[in-house]
Amino acid sequence: MNPIPPSETGGQVPGDRGTPGPAAPSSERPTDLDVELFVQLFDVAPTILTVTDRDLRVLAVNQTWSDATGVSKDEAVGAYIPDWYPTVDHAHWETLRQVMATGRPVHDDEVTARHPRDPSDTRTWRFSGYPLRDAAGTTVAVGLAAVDVTEERRAQAQRDLAWRRLWLLSEASGLLGASLDLDATLREMVTLIVPEVADVCVLLLGDGPCPSGVEPDPFVLRCAVWARSADLPRPPDPDRFQPGSEIDVAGTAVTRVFATHQPLLLDLDEPPGDAGPLRAAGLARQVGLRFAILVPLLNGTDCLGCVGFGLTADRRYDEQDLRAVTELGGRIAAAIANARAYEAQRAAALTLQRALLPHDIPALPELDLAWRYHPGTGGTEVGGDWLDVIPLPAGRVALVIGDVMGHGLLAAAAMGQLRTATRTLALLDLPPAEVLSKLDTLIRGIDTLATMIYAVFDPGAHTLTMANGGHLPPALRRPDGAVELLETTDGIMLGVADAAFTETQCPFPPGSTLALYTDGVVESPTVHVGEGTEHLLRVLAETTDLSTAADQLLALLDPADASDDATVLLARASGPRDGHPTVINQHYRFSVGR
What's the predicted TM-score (pTM) here? Predict the structure, then answer.
């Protein structure tokens, strides 16, 4: 072995001690070994690597690319790379051309395309493109580094889908619990479902619950509500599914849903027999639906109806969708059952209230009367409003209005007891304050609260004597047209404590009009009591006909928004008259739901 010259060892000879100095930079070109190492690194890198020319023809690929695509290196080199991915948007290839044109790299662009060897397998890659330059600095090729992120994106899609399902159930619960107006609630529900869950949603209800194991007879359900996506390829006839229309489900999968109380996941391209209500009505063929889920609407062991969810060929249902919409169907069924139970209770309360309100008020010779009663709507139950006109000895008349706190059957029953007791005490000809005092004792015995005005009209003295138990002040229109709220000595409401009630007296000559009313006449969730009171006084001042005035007093409030009963009693002193007395104008507006 030849010794190394001192000039090549920094002035040292072998065996000399000391630290060699830094090696001088080499300006030599890479050795064959360097090239071989770079080629190996390119080939064994776990990242997909590709080199293309300015026309996107492959110059080189690594083994990872070949393994991922199933395309050999020999097949790849020289090939036009977009040919392998015909479904990729042209904009992605233009991005790579810009790398060549501008010399600026592009980072983390994502592309989804079919696998070159397996068109049924759709993959997602995240790639970056870098300019490759020659010794003169000219960009001569583009290097691509790509990572397969398909599983990551699928997992993210599953997480997003699970979150959307939870969001849908949460939104549905909020809708179903917000109102007892079933029709409006179901309309909002299908609007939420389409297109989030389905391209078409149809909700069918029976006239009554169907026990388990029993098919609907005569196999006819009614369309409660339905909705469709606006971009269906073939929109259906809008008249085919109208609320209330009958749908014949004989021989369809709906009868099985009723019989088994189990949901069904259907492929509508399968042979007939499992086509559900969508195909039974011809809707599936008309709008191009491919997949459907039928969910029974179960209330305990009874089936109230069926809800159908339909998709076109662009999407399809799986078992997770089946579980999600089954849960959704359960919540819809609970809302339907609650609404029907509410309507039944409301109908019973209205029937009781109608029976307890006066129907035999006589026509009086010196008093014209008009009244209105309207029960609360907009998701509330009937309340405890009542009114009465009671003839007393010596031609006098008791005018009564009251409001029992609460709603429903209990409020209606308490109102009936209070009205009966009031008529009994009136026949004893007790003063108004004493009547309220005894009613206070009664109302505390039945554990409720109420407000009330008891007024006695004396036509001989042309006076009104009143006692007020926590009720809104009456309004008075004098013969000259002046209108005011009467300053009564307001006592506390009945049932609060053993309280003393006092009386107020005011003139009530012929031509005077008294307005007794409950709080539902002058306030609602959207009308402030001050605004309602101003409306009351304005109507009394401008309208002389009692029947018209009574109608106008209720016109301020939207019946769909009225949160409480509305009751008004108008009484006008007419003075002595010959001939027949004025016919009483009575008006009860009861509206019972389905």
Answer: 0.53
